[in-house]
Amino acid sequence: MRSIPTLLLASLAVTTAWAQGSNPAASRATHTVAGAASGRIAFVHAEVIPMDRERVLHDYTVVVDGGTITAVGPSASVRVPAGVERVDARGRYLMPALADMHVHLLDDAWKMMLTPEAKAASAVIPDEAFLLPYLANGVTAVQVLSANAYDLALRERIRRGEVLGPRMILAPMVDGPDRAWPPPISTWVATPAAAAAAVRRMKAEGYDKIKAYSFLSREQYDSIVVAAREQHMDVIGHVPYALSVEEVVAAGQRYISHSEEIAKHAATYDSATIDRYATLLVKNGVWMSPTLVTTHAFLDLFDDPGSVGRRPEAEYFRHPMQAGVWGFLLDSLYLKIPASGRRSIRDGYEQFQLAFTRVFARKGGKLLAGSDTPLPGLVPGFALHRELRELVNVGLTPYQALQSATTGPAEYLGERDRRGIVATGQATDLVLLTANPLADIAAASTVDGLLMRGQWLPGEELRRRMRATVASARTP
Ligand SMILES: [Zn+2]
After folding, report:
1. How far is the CA of 291 from the centre of ligand 1 (A)?
2. Which pLDDT score, from 0 to 100, does residue 189 have?
3. N or C: which end of the chain has fewer CB within 10 A?
4. Burial annotation 419-446 (CB, 10 A radius, 16+ → b, else e)
């Protein structure tokens, strides 16, 4: 996410106290929606895309017991035990479910951006209204790059089965004070000691990784790196302006959350520069989310501020809070960017980010698909598919694009032995598609069922929930 200009901070800060004082979990009704994993299910006669290499296994059967795959083989030879629920998957494609490794949750913290009227109208936004679109799009894991207390509590409620939602990897955002996103979206640290203390507190509270943001000083950043190493946490995120790309790589930063971050630090956009940065990151095993879709949304909004609201998926993003956040960010950030700034964002995208992503992938760079939802134009779940299409447009094969949302995240999370591919012994979530995404990446969005943590959600059930919970939570 880009930063809110400093001049906006005064208005945002006024409402920050409200957001900090809220108790996210306490006011919610508690009801079980996820239920226990029904246990055993078999997908019979499926076209299986295992993602171990580029291939489709014709007429295969996959048996899953309590979330773990217990058998994969030709339908003629795999015996489905009695009592196992059978899903006839003939003509449909079964593959690992997807992960979006750069998201923000439309949680309580974002309410600071709403007008008082909008805030009153959306006192209780259903969590499902911003979580279900992930599932309906086959996304069962997200890395949250501005995680806060609300998200910690929400993750717990998902674990307990009270809310249906994806698995969450939570990374709070740490930044220098008074510069960009106000608390609790971000955590501001004024000194190196405060930065180290924040990292230790975040570890103790249960967060997974630390996201460094743009306005950290060199001393603050270094302090975060040392403290995170002590706490066995990865430092991920932006490349602070105070440092170079080379310096964050040398510091061991594990992941860079936008290709735009490299563009910002590049003096020129020629092919030698692009090659040099791609080589540096590949050689050091740094993970990268190109987030082309994030920059593309800016360009579409510059061309026509109403365009992203007319995207088909905006149908699922009409809750007053969702509309209010988009409206605020459009009016106070996106559309305030002067012509010169718009020009440099466009140049960065067209002359650097696209080529960089292509070269990085060609060199074997470690890609993680990420969307930066819910920034304007970016609807949870749907935006990941836009990013996959962007990756194919710059020259990746559909298989490579899908790796960035399946095996890539599993490797990044150190879980490749149990997640990311369809194979016996894997605990990977599965998605059923009506068309072959290896032939056309657009088919990755034809979700017709999801097996998440052992729970089977047929396509009609996902669509019913989307209509009932998401489409109905709209601006009057
Ligand atoms: Zn972001």
Report:
1. 9
2. 94
3. C
4. bbbbeeebebbbbbbebbbbeebebbbb
Q: Strand locations in 146-300, DSSP E? A: 167-170, 173-175, 186-188, 210-212, 235-237, 255-256, 287-288
Mean pLDDT by 10 residues, the chain (476 residues): 48 32 33 50 98 98 96 97 95 98 91 78 76 97 97 97 96 90 91 96 98 96 98 97 97 98 96 98 98 96 89 86 88 92 96 98 98 94 98 98 98 96 97 98 98 96 90 67
Output the CA 165–ligand 1 centroid distance in Å: 19
211 part of a folded domain: yes
Supply the pLDDT for residue 296. 96
DSSP letter assigned to residue 353: I
Tell whether 49 is covered by a domain: no
CATH code of the domain in which 336 resides: 3.20.20.140
Are 78 and 61 a contacting pair, CB within 8 Å? yes
Handedness of CA 365, 369, 372, 377 (dihedral sign): positive
How many Å lie between the centroid of ligand 1 and the Cα of residue 334? 15
Pairing of strands 68-74, 57-65: antiparallel
Q: How far apart are CA 11 and CA 24, in angstroms?
A: 23
**CA of 85 relative to ligand 1 center, distance in Å:** 40
Q: For the chain, how many structural domains are there in total? A: 1
pLDDT score, position 124: 59
Distance (angstroms) between ligand 1 centre and the Cα of 187 equals: 14
Preceding omega of 74 cis (within 30 degrees of 0) = no
Report yes or no on 474 lying in a domain: no
Query: Does residue 418 fall inside a structural domain?
Result: yes
Q: Is the pTM of this model over 0.90?
A: yes
Rounded to whole angstroms, the Cα distance separating 90 from 110 reads 43
